[in-house]
Amino acid sequence: MKRVGAISLKTVEWAGLLVVALLFVFPFLWMASTAFKDMSEVRQFPPTLLPETWEWGNFVQAWESGPFLMFTVNSIVVAVAILILQFLTAVPAAYAFARYQFPGRNLLFGLVLVALMIPGYIIFLPIYVQLSGWGLVNTLWSLILPYAASAFGIFLLRQAFMQVPDEVIEAARLDNASEWKIMWTIMVPMAKPVLVTFGLFSFIYHWNDYFWPLIMTNSDEVRTLPVGISSLRMSDGGTLWNVMMAGNMILILPILVIFFVAQRHIIKAFVYQSK
Amino acid sequence: MARVVLQQITKTFQNQKVVKGLNLVIPDGSFTVLVGPSGCGKSTTLRMIAGLETATDGEIFIGSQSVNALPPGKRDVAMVFQNYALYPTMNVYDNIAYGLRNRGTSKKDCDVLVKEIAEIVGLADFLKRKPSQLSGGQRQRVALARAMVKKPKVFLMDEPLSNLDAKLRNQMRVELTSLHKQLGSTFIYVTHDQVEAMTMGDQIVVMSDGNIMQVAAPMDLYQEPENLFVAQFIGSPPMNIVPAEGRSDQLWGFRPEKAVLLPASVSPVSAEEMWTAKGQIVSREILGSDTLFHVETEKGRVIVKTETEEIGQYGSNVTVTVAKPHVYIFDRVSGKKVGRLAERGQVSALAGGVN
């Protein structure tokens, strides 16, 4: 009896997980399916789950309906530049917050936490005005500079750096390593899982970001993929959903690849403490 | 190689003095052990020599150079930490080579030095391993190799053996001593374990509450403790302390291994040369080679260490006797040793002899 009870409990558990998984996966699969249908099948009722004929041409049409190569390059430049700048600013800041006693440390760290709590939508107007004053609106700089320092990154790295035992740093000092060297050759490698996770979050967020590029750019030369793809919607004869979804597939493909490659690191970052 | 001199070294943490004006000379090439109970300031003293703490007051010399203003990396010292403090992301080779690279040693020289040291400490086959793939003893060797490869003037060791199991600890103790002989450098070793201090050091510094209680060679420390603290800290079990007879301003002390137990029915020979006390055995600890008897006497509870366990059973009545030259006299207020009850050499062979 007990065994039957245990089995049915497991079944319920799995069923629950399956429902949640479907909730997340279904829209994604629907997008993928639509990307391969022709327009008449998209409008068909009842809808088909899998395309009857596989229309690879949707991808070609999406790619050719605008300067998508330029959008892709812009997206890569922006996301990578932000990532590099955030590492360069977050590592020293986090090291200082984690390892140094200096006047105003708590106040400054408090400011970092405040920055973490303010949504970007509240401050975009003053930033826009400022960037426009510097003549940077409608340049890639306007997409990169506002994100050069990440409060989230500083916070996350500070926690990771605080886990490093004092003796390891002291041993490095006795080994004649400068603070700069300790930071990059001891601390950063020890915080690698956290760095990878933060890097992924940052890259995915800025790769997918639609709002900021939309308000900061007004010409194709500096637009990124999400903005470019949304322009697929404005076709003459109504929205071509299949082409639109093909565009979205192009958008998320790099992220999927990165995610599968880095999966091991992401999992490690979250179980690191318990080891 | 260099001698280390501390002049009036003081360390204050948040208005609390943890090291109180130490004056100490650590001779060139010596194996000096700083020993004391936890919180006595021994680790802080070591860390000040390393440069990991700055002295609040006083001056530290390594060789003839004052090092107060020098950062740790420029003092030409190496340190072995209790928890090894290896760089977890680097393999054994890089752990050992890190200090050399930071000094600008060429890649070729570095390679030669690292391999040479790895051979000495028996790590040659493990150079590619990460610290997490090594046992405790192997990690300890990496830490040692990392210190040795820099050929420092002074080796500093902060309880380096306390994370090892008992067997390995004994083995490493012997290895460290022979390593010291081999290298001929100055070793400064911190421990709370008096057995480690006695077996390894050629100069022992006993510390308590931020002060130096005595500096001496191991046997001198054991035989001629300068005060009550040293008498009770060095030696296991500690020295027995009993009230002095006829003087309330003094205390008498004797070592458990110098006392002799007699059955109550036997009266001691040459009683005038002896300190004696009648009592009852209240507990017995058999250590194998020796036995410890806890005896509740008319003059207080004492411990007697003998080679045989036959003399007494729990509850039997006994007489504790100690030859007077083995009884130390201490001042009750200052704790300083005043002398012994009788000169050494004044004791008959019957009472156990004197060494």
User: Which CATH C-level class of the largest domain in chain A is it?
Assistant: Mainly Alpha
The chain pair forming the largest interface, with residue counts per chain, is:
A-B, 17 and 25 residues
Number of domains of chain B: 2
Q: What is the number of helical segments of chain B per DSSP (H or I, 4+ residues)?
A: 8
Number of domains of chain A: 2
Strand order of the largest sheet of chain B: 6-7-8-3-9-10
Distance, first to last CA of chain A:
37 Å
Low-pLDDT stretches of chain A: none
Number of distinct beta strands of chain B: 19
Largest sheet of chain B: 6 strands, mixed
CATH domain class name of the largest domain in chain B: Alpha Beta
User: Separation of termini of chain B?
Assistant: 35 Å
Number of helices of chain A: 14
CATH topology of the largest domain in chain B: Rossmann fold
Structural shape of chain A: globular
Overall pLDDT confidence of chain B: 89
Chain oligomer state = heterodimer
Order of helices and strands of chain B: EEEHEEEHHHEHEHEEHHEEEEEEEEE
- CATH architecture annotation of the largest domain in chain B: 3-Layer(aba) Sandwich
List the helices and strands and how they pair.
The complex is a heterodimer of chains A (275) and B (355).
Chain A: H1 2-35, H2 39-43, H3 57-64, H4 68-99, H5 105-117, H6 120-133, H7 141-144, H8 151-162, H9 166-174, H10 179-190, H11 192-208, H12 211-216, H13 225-230, H14 241-271
Chain B: E1 4-13, E2 16-26, E3 31-35, H1 42-50, E4 57-62, E5 65-66, E6 77-80, H2 92-102, H3 107-120, H4 136-148, E7 154-158, H5 166-183, E8 186-191, H6 194-200, E9 203-208, E10 211-216, H7 218-223, H8 228-233, E11 240-243, E12 250-254, E13 259-263, E14 274-286, E15 291-297, E16 300-306, E17 317-323, E18 328-331, E19 337-340
Parallel strand pairs in B: 3-8, 3-9, 6-7, 7-8
Antiparallel strand pairs in B: 1-2, 1-4, 4-5, 9-10, 11-12, 12-18, 13-17, 14-15, 14-17, 15-16, 18-19
